[in-house]
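Hi R.,

Here's the chain you asked about this morning:
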Amino acid sequence: MKPAIRVDNLTKRFRLGGRVPGGLNLTERLVSALRAFRRRPATDGAEFWALKGVSFEVKPGEVVGIIGRNGAGKSTLLKVLSRIVEPTGGRAEIRGRVGSLLEVGTGFHHELTGRENIFLNGSLLGMSRREIAKNFDAIVAFSEVERFIDTPVKRYSSGMYVRLAFAVAAHLEPEILIVDEVLAVGDAEFQQKCLGKMREVSRGGRTILFVSHNMTAVQQFCSRAVVLAGGTVALDGTPADAVRSYLAQRGNLVAEWTDDRPPADRRVKFNAVRVRRADGEIAPALVADQPFAVEIEYEVAAPASCQIAFRVNREDGQTVLTTGDNDAARVYCRNRPPGRYVARAHFPAHLLAPGRYHLLVAANQVGCGGGFDQLDSVLDFEVLPVGSLQQIEGRLGVVVPLLDWSEEKTG
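And here is the predicted structure, written out as tokens:
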């Protein structure tokens, strides 16, 4: 049986401070032409190899996880397989129609309605209007956006956008389904719904590539996993072996991340993320009975309405909590003029149980035509057991907060 996906010595090079000539769409070519008239930055000409000789095969009907740290090459690999970018070298052979869900903003035309985008995506997959219409009701029901199906998707929240995008990708019957960590934008209930749908799709004999930092989901859902590290294949084996390899990669804790990624046009871009102790020091090791803060530096290139948010995950990928800068105001998105910003989320003492954690950071945008930024597993930090309620009282729990109690005598 011929493989559904065959990747042979695949490489992809980006040029820092500029663009690689091949693999650009029309908009990117126009931007590159305009930039040619500008003075080149000092970094122009420097090269970044996102993929370095990646090779593997996926059989029809396999569910394969792709895991690795931020910058390992996962998203670049999926974009090559989805024919969004061209490789610098090597070959990627795909047998069958591909449905991709890579990031919010990919695959939809923001001026078109949800209904129109469903038919547009089906046409791009080579389906007839009758075939698309047959699946239309199931797509709308799954996405839960019935009331807004005739509204331009540029007015959708990021959650609505992801629900519709996943429903389209999963229901238009591609032979190969490629899903990136974008499902992290949805709520927990919808994520479980998506995993259930992907199981149903895989039982139908279709092939799935699944990128996630949720190690529990990878082990439960995938039959095999490929670990990427520095643009190369570090391991190709069972999900259990892959998770062990991935966790071993994490090595030393990292309390600060600064942006060294290839250039990209983003309306909102993260420049730095760090963990600060109560005394202001940047440190990956925190004491349980002391407060700390997560600090996010970001830049807004054009007026944007967005939410700055992050998830705290345990080392095994289990989400502990999600927070956003709308927690106090309860307004999902705030309008931000262009400029540089620093946002801080303050954690009280005795909230997280002792253990290792990592952060996933996102700018969730509404009505901006895409261009948001997202960082997967960007920081690693540890809460030490010193002074913890587990150590003092033997308390159990993923979180161990000190809650406000009240009491009154009733008799």
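One quick note: The chain is about 25% helix and 35% strand.

Cheers,
M.
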